[in-house]
Amino acid sequence: MLTAAAQAVARIRETHPLVHSITNYVTVNDVANILLSYGAAPAMVEDDAETFGFAQISSALYINLGTLTKEQELAAAQAVLGARQGNTPIVIDPVALGAIPRKAEVLRRLIELGTPAVIKGNSGEILALAGVAGAVRGVDAVGDAEGLEDAAANVAGQLGVVVAATGPVDIVSDGTRTFRIHNGHELLTRVTGAGCMVGALVAAASAVTDPLTAAVAGIVSMGVAGELAAQAAQLPGSFRVALIDAIYQVDAALIAERGRVDEL
């Protein structure tokens, strides 16, 4: 799997996939910049009059439900319909699922309109998706993540998608194969938008490889970048800048050298 993930990163650098992103206003700039540094081309198209057509011609669609407005909800629905028609892979990040009931309903409707390739959330959101209550506070996971591997695998199998759960140890599952990713750094939890950026990287990778490999590639890339950034900056503000620089350095060789992935 690590070899396949490294190859995916190389293809992103070679092909510069166009990633249509509908994301939250807190992190839209970070998502655009992380995609650029990764070798992808970001497009932050959110008008519902444009999203259907743009999703059709995009390499991947990334939808983040963090600060979901009614306008974004309509735009996301149109984008999913366009992506389905254009065979564009979809990655959805159900931010605050489990804390805000509306998010579960919006996610359900989007899945009905077009099955995503990957659902990427933090451990609390994925546990909430699996029916485990009390695992999310606002947009953050709280408590331990006991049973996360089984929860991710069960949801993946039920929905027919790849499920990626980020945390101290990241979990990626397609319902049959489940991987643990051990890269990352604690400072990633001290900057706003790290999870949103991970979702964007997964979307970029989904444009060049299968969903399971894409989820592993995007998450390993962010984990390795976090480790590199922490070597250059030990405080959150400088770390945030160093993270963008570090993603720019992540390539296939670095993934193969530093990636720490095992299969359950």
Give the N-terminus to C-terminus distance in angstroms: 12 Å
Order of helices and strands: HEHEHEHEHEHEEHEEEHHHHE
Low-confidence stretches: 137-143
Domains (count): 1
Q: What is the CATH architecture descriptor?
A: 3-Layer(aba) Sandwich
Give me the secondary-structure category: alpha/beta
Give the tally of β-strands: 11
Describe the structure.
Strands 2-1-3-4-5-8-9-10-11 form a 9-stranded mixed β-sheet, with helices on both faces. It has a two-stranded antiparallel ribbon with strand order 6-7. β3, α4 and β4 (90-93) form a beta-alpha-beta unit. The longest helix is centred in the last third of the chain and has 22 residues, at 211-232. α2 runs parallel beside α10 (236-249). It starts with a helix and ends with a strand. It has helices spanning 2-15, 28-38, 48-57, 70-86, 101-113, 123-129, 148-159, 194-206, 211-232, 236-249, 252-258, and strands at 18-22, 41-43, 60-64, 90-93, 118-122, 136-137, 140-141, 162-166, 170-173, 178-181, 261-263. It has a single domain (2-166, 179-259), classed as Ribokinase (UDP-N-acetylmuramoyl-L-alanine:D-glutamate ligase, 3-Layer(aba) Sandwich), CATH 3.40.1190.20. By secondary structure, the chain is α/β, with parallel strands linked by helices. The chain has 11 helices and 11 strands.
Short characterization:
With 264 residues, this protein is an alpha/beta fold.
